[in-house]
Amino acid sequence: MRATLIASALILAACQMPVTEGVAEDPAEDACGASELQHLVGQSASAAEGLTVPGPVRVFRTGQPVTLDYRVERLNIELDGRGRIVRVFCG
Question: What CATH architecture does domain 22-90 belong to?
Fold first, then answer.
């Protein structure tokens, strides 16, 4: 019985899809080009100055209130309390 449970758990674990962090699975999810800008994570906000992207850009600090509207073409740059980029994503 125990061997059956272990075998079942291993089979289910093998069926899981690999996680690819920073890569959009659906091309529409990367309409703003965020996947090309992941190298900015960890740098200061000034590293993002002068970016030329096709759509709007929103820069905000973690915890700061932002609108909840989703716009695939909008590039979001999230900063921590020290002004470092912690996340770059579309929406």
Answer: 2-Layer Sandwich (3.30)
